[in-house]
Specification:
Length: about 800
Amino acid sequence: MTEMHEAVLAKLDFGAVLERLAGRCRFGVAADRARQLGPSADHETVAYLLDVTAEAVDLLTSFPEVTIGGPRDIRGLTERAQKGGRLQPADLLLVQDTITASRNLRRAFLRLPEAESRYPHLLGFVDHLVELPDLETAINRSIGPRGDVLDTASDELARIRRDVRVAQSRLMDRLNALVSGGRYASALQDTIITTRDGRYVVPVKAEARAALPGVVHDTSSSGQTLFVEPFEIVELNNKWRERQLDEQHEIERILDDLSGRVGDRAAELNQTVEAVAAIDLAMAKARLAFDLRANRPHLWPGASAGDDLPECHPTHRISLVRARHPLLDPETVVPIDVELGEQYRVLLITGPNTGGKTVALKTIGLLTMMAQTGLFIPADDRSVVSVFPAIFADIGDEQSIAQSLSTFSAHMRTVIGMLRHVTPDSLVLLDELGAGTDPQEGSALARALISALLERGPLVIATTHYSEVKAYAYTTPGVENASVEFDVATLAPTYRLMIGVPGRSNALAIARRLGMPEAIIDQASTLLDPDEVRVDALLQDIRRRRDDAGDMVARAETAIADADQLRRSTERELREAERERQGARAEALAEAEAELAEVRETLRRLQRDRDMVAATREHVDTRRLEVEQAAETVRDFRRTRIRPPAASASSRAIRAGDRVRIVSLDQEGEVVAVADDQADIMLGALKMRQPLSALERLGRASTDAARGVVYTPAASEPVSIEVDLRGYRAAEVEEMLDRYLENAYRSGLPFVRIIHGKGTGALRQVVRDILNNHPAVATHQLAPREQGGDGATVATLREDS
């Protein structure tokens, strides 16, 4: 990355995001990789990185038990072994841990259902995980879990260690006999056996040195005790030490052999370390997405229809929905919506200081960089971002005492350097455009700079407080105003970003709220530029109209939702009525067929027994005729059930204003429109569409009589979209929740929210058990944090088929 690129990353706090990512890695190598990540400028690469993260999110969601195990960074060990160095037992255990983790991770992936179709990119990493059973077995056979070389490492080592034990046993027997016998009792300081310089000795009194001939290896700090190796055990000590040296030489040979094997497989082991790190990094991206409640953004593909308009950017778009700064508390941060590139290429954000302008600016830049690094972004899954080859930012106070530069000069140096490199594919972020100098000159410079950037063609987001720049945005195609809202009542910003509405000065309103004498406020008002006053009044009117429009939209959406719920409920009840009618006809048909079968059986029995009962042929023929007539009646009934009703031959074509009967529902209504072979019919307050073949014309509707309600669905109280179970005992919940779910399902609600609180979790478990077994529930999950989190559950209801 260039120096300018590094500076932009620092200004946007991108390193803090990478540090959070590194903290979610389980492998040190992956954490190092995370800290070195940077945005990619290649569209295909970014799409691939996002695919990898999406696969990791799916993996951890569906199979949370899959982990990387306990790999180690053994690249330094493999390099030493490759150069002929000797690895110690602890080093070999690290190699073994890595081989074992690689094997387990590889097999875990290969056991996953549909792994090739669900995780193709992760499997690309898995293909580089090697299994080295021979090396793994050799280390396991040779090195114990505590780092000791085992007897099973070689037959020679096992034989030598047996000789060591025999030599030590003979030596100890002789020493025990020496110290426990009475021959040297007066010369010994104590009846113990110890070691000095790897040889067994006994403590002898200094004044009795001559009583026990031997080699003195050490003396006590007081000089009163000598540690003597008696001459009679020197040979045994020598044999024991020789066996120990043989053991050490065999151990070194074994370690050299194992080290050589590691060196031979160094390339494969290093490849495994890199593959495990890649998989762990992908999982860390998924964990970060979970923690940030982040979603995968859509990548803008490039040129599209309408790109020839001057206000449109030809190749890039930004559309962030409910975007949040990733480093702020998700519980308190206010989400913002941003559009850029489709209707305008420059967005000017105005508002009071500490109102959130800079946070909004950083949020847009930071989320764009996160997406280009393959990270999910904390925004709605409808959000769209572009891949920018370069992002330029001038944010914060860069005053330099060492270079004797003022704040204004420092900003100008940054902007001048930016203008040398900016291209139409760039994203430019400018904070407090033209600030730090005379307001009139600063405003003029800001407008000229925006004009220059418009000519160069990049997407631009800038913050400013100059009113002239706001007016410039209104009159310049491709430039749009925005502002961060300020609540005068609380004297605090709301941090809401409002597109299309410039910020207004709140100085006088704030002063009045703080208790400034009204006379001073009035005098200050008279000193304001009249044009500024008119602009301020215009802005206030725009805000009021915008709020009114927002309220109307909200009410309209609520009305649409209510109407949709009523429509679904009515359609469901109509389907149920039709099923009941068809069921009744089928039941009647079945009953008639059963009776016919019984008559036929009676006739057959009568024919068999006519000689016995003296029945005449005429009597039998009469009964047979009755049976045939009954069969014909059943066939007519079946044809009536199956064949759709035909329009009366004498009736005219159905048209608007006719009264008709819906045959399948046995309901009457009025035709309000006819198109092709379909008719729209009003059943009281309900409008529905039916095929013409299912209608029977009754005549023209009355024009002078009030139209009565022909069809009225079963009356029911509106069902709330949520139910609060807090405070109820677990025994009371089942019946209450079952009744509520049934009513919600019949009312056509797509989903419901069940509030059970957090507490001990007992009530939540009862709710889960009920939802798992309820026929009306398709799926359920804990509510998002902003809707109650662990204290509520959202259940999606089945759609009636």
